[in-house]
Amino acid sequence: MLNFSLAHVGVYRKPEKFKQTVQCPWISFYVSGLKYSRDYLPDGRLLRESGTDANPYFAVGFPGMKIDFEFGKNRENWVLMLKDVAIRYSSDGKSAEIKEGSEWLRLPFYVEIPGERVEGWQMEIRRIQEAWLNPTPLNSFRARLGILNILRFMIDRHPDTLGFSPEEKLKRLIDEDSTFSRSVQDMSRSCGMSPDHMRVLFQKKFHIAPLAYRNQKRGTYMMELIANSSLSVKEISFRAGFRHVSHFCMEHRKLYGITPLEGIRKFRNTRGNGDSSRQGCLRNIAL
Predict the structure, then answer these.
(1) Is the pTM of the predicted complex or chain greater than 0.85?
(2) ∠230-236-241 over CA atoms, to 5°?
(3) Is residue 42 pLDDT above 60, yes or no?
């Protein structure tokens, strides 16, 4: 797990106009009251500018970063200060990088928070503050988990951080292809690489070939529909991206050693309370 500790958790509510240089890594949670804010990298480049129309957001601050801001009435912004964390600017200056084990992982400087999730995050930040103020070993662990939850949200809300290398971009494209309609070759070319070159990079990074990874995802999805839906074999075949039911049946037998209909009879029959109702469902399955 990521190594770090929490130095301070505070909320600011008073109107204020101020310029400051960031002294330690922090996560800022902005809710309301902003008039303007300008964030500058240590070399003086403007990183981000926000005004009165800014939506709630999380942002990461770094030592050396300069911030010029003004808050008015109804101000609410939280700052969670970190210490003992390995964090740095990316080489292109467009994002942060945080160290997990021996790897440097990309982290966005800033992500907006959907309106319907703001209240939930307010509750979460208050829980982190309460845990920090009562620093038993268990509460310190709770506070760390809360910070990790924020970092996970920031990464999930910023897809570029999941695809900053060609092989990770390919993995993201495969993960997002819920209908299994694109070929691995086409997705590889979308990442700017030939399929052969991408296969080597993907194998080195994830220890599995891209086509094998895609087939495993599709196989898992197929079995989920076999066991936990009321869909027919034909419907499952279509949802899993097969043009022909016969191809779907061959692939299912190859992966699981049984046909899709045998899978339905075996796994759907384990659910429910009445044998007669289960058999009635099976009689309605159409190829």
Answers:
(1) no
(2) 155
(3) yes
